[in-house]
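Annex B, item 7. Sequence and structure tokens for protein A, then protein B.
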Amino acid sequence: MTRHLYRIIYSKTVALILVSVFLFTLTSCSASNTKDTSPIGGINYDTSVYVMSYENIEDEEEPGIVYREVLDFNKLVTDPDRTLVLYFYTTANADVYGITAGVEDLAQYYANDITFVGINTIDMREYTTAYNLVALPEFVLIKNNLIISYFEGYNYDYWTMEDVSYWIEENLK
């Protein structure tokens, strides 16, 4: 009788272990299939396509702008719940750093409403063709997966970030 009882306990224990392993495998596979598929990745200041994200920065008292790598550009620009300003620039232009600082200010100001995407066209030339860009810098406003307007800097003798902000406000009315 004791032997029979040990066999029952042993077989139940083995069955329980096998079921546990099966369930663990099943849940771990489904967890990997439902991983975060955000088009925006980690902080990366060396990438050619990035989101200017206003957020808390480690070891800083105040939030600021960080550059987050764009992992899936098409997914980002076709997101119907996201309003975007694409900022096309070239590092060959000496004024790019002053302009980029102004775009960072706009990204901070509109942080809750608009996603600002910087695109270095020296590395990403195919985007200049895809968006029919003529000169740089240039801004493209996208809402509900549609191009709303272009701010073509070359059409102005002189412009400021206030002009870009006005352009955004006017086109989002």
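Protein B:
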Amino acid sequence: MVTAITIYMLVWPVIVAGVLFTLVRGFLEDWKESRDAGRPII
């Protein structure tokens, strides 16, 4: 049981970092596309 908790504690930051990276990458792509088109992102 302790091993499962230890693995969970070590893996969840990696999962969170992957999700955050995906969100930021998508935002930056949309921002660049709207900037190139000359329109506001909102």
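Comment on protein B: The radius of gyration is 17 Å.
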